Amino acid sequence: MIDSPKSSSKAFSMLNMIQWWAMEPHNLPQNIANWLDERGSMTQRFEQYCQTVTVEPQRQQFITQQALGDEQALLPASQRYWLREVRMFGDGVPWLEGRTVIPEQTLSGSDRGLLDLNTTPLGRYLFKDNRLTRDYIQIGRQGELWARRSLLLLSGNPLLLTEVFLPASPVYQIDLFPNRSSLCEVKAHGAQQPKCT
Is 42 annotated among the ligand-binding residues? Predict the structure, then answer.
């Protein structure tokens, strides 16, 4: 179990303050909508915009159903849930904060490997074979930051993934093209920090 001081409620409070929409909001910019509707691996997509994607675990532990908040309504009842909160970086720049909640019954057989991801991006595990399907994507916003949460089914077993895209993320870069230069290289040459739309 990991539960470091970095995993304070302040660091990840934005994950609990997201306004979620039942339908796609009318003011969603098209370039951002394209990212939020990504059906493949977000890790792999990020890798098109930098040299290295890394993950820093903030919290990895079992929690009770009472600790889920509104997530209770989105997952089946379970005595315990595996919680993993991470920060994802592109070339050392924070791009995403993620939260995964997994009912204990999903952690069966080979999928107990989800307990041992540590610094491995979740997408590297989920998309390594054809057992994953995505039930739905819900779009949300926290201040100027866009977010999404997805109910994923791994061999038919659910897990809930919430992703908040941080200001330096390529999600907000209209004129950035993959495989040309990383955001970090742009930043190194004195470019202004991107602003959310």
Answer: yes
Residue 1 annotated as part of some ligand binding site: no
pTM of structure: 0.81
Dihedral angle over CA of 119, 136, 34, 165, nearest 10:
-40
Say if 83 falls within a structural domain.
yes
Q: Please report, for the domain that includes residue 64, its CATH number.
A: 3.40.1410.10
More confident residue, 177 or 156: 156
CA-wise closest residue to 111 among 133, 126, 130: 126
Does the annotation flag 97 for ligand binding? no
18-27, 32-41, 79-88, 172-181: least confident range: 172-181
What domain count does the chain have? 1
